[in-house]
Amino acid sequence: MIKWTDLGENFRRVYIPAHVLTLVGIISLFTGDTSPWWLLAVYPAWFLFGHIGFAIFIHKHFCHEMFETKPWIARLGYYFGMLCGTGSPVMLKMLHISVHHPNSDTEDDPHTPLKGFWWSYFLWLNHKWDFKNVWLAKNMMKDRWIRFYHKHYYKIYWGTFLLLCLINWRLAVFTISMATFIEFHLSGIVNTYGHTPHRGSYQNYTDGDNSQNIPWLNWLTLGLGLHNNHHGQPGNWNYAHKPGEIDFASWFVPLIATNTKLGKT
Q1: Distance between alpha carbon 250 and the CA centroid of its chain, in Å?
Q2: CB count in 10 Å sphere of residue 180
Q3: All structural domains of the chain with their residue ranges
Q4: For 237, which of 66, 130, 208, 258 could close a Cys bridge (C-beta 3.0–4.6 Å)?
Q5: pLDDT tens-digit map of 173-203
Q6: 258 — phi, psi (to 5°)?
Q7: Could you say which DSSP state residue 84 is in?
Q8: Mind giving me the DSSP string for 175-193?
Q9: How far apart (Å, rounded) are the C-alpha atoms in residues 252 and 236?
Q10: Is there a contact between 24 and 178 (Cβ–Cβ < 8 Å)?
């Protein structure tokens, strides 16, 4: 039997509570205690926290160093990114750069679908990872803001949630909790279907791993479904590589970047 302490820390402290709070918000809609108009806040909140904050700032800027921007803009972006509940930027970079990309679609890939659907969707989140590239973490910890974000990630996430609750509990639930709910399942879809050939998916780069572009997901997220393009050119901040493909970052990044020719794998 799985014990509560066997679950990953972020799974226990963020993902499970976010799912419960999302359920509370949905029930309140059906009981008439909450206006359906609150649903209009969900997608914009996810887009700010999940796409701009996490996908562009934490993933593209911090993890892959695809572009440079002014420090205050980066710090604000990281803050928004943490509000979708994916974890500390330091842990995400360690997992992503040190483990996932070098071992994509192998047994050493942390969330490979080779270990099963549910493993890649969410069970991998409960695994205790032994990071070997400790130098990577030490280098990141030289930045006092990154140290602060890493040390106080849970305080930042739940502190912001409580501040919004002081205004209206629905504001907190229909933004932070539901954005976390969406990001959790979006990550599960990308980790699973983004690395499994299936009907409707395609590859522009066929000499690497099993990563796939997923058109319907890309239209819903405005760029995050072009996973094969990302794996094919991991240093490119624009995922849209062919006519007909779209990526919000292709419009947004040039507005905030001071250098867009840095891309690293």
Answers
A1: 18
A2: 27
A3: 4-127+135-188+234-259
A4: 66
A5: 999 999 999 999 999 999 999 999 999 999 9
A6: -100, -15
A7: T
A8: IIIHHHHHHHHHHHHHHHH
A9: 14
A10: no
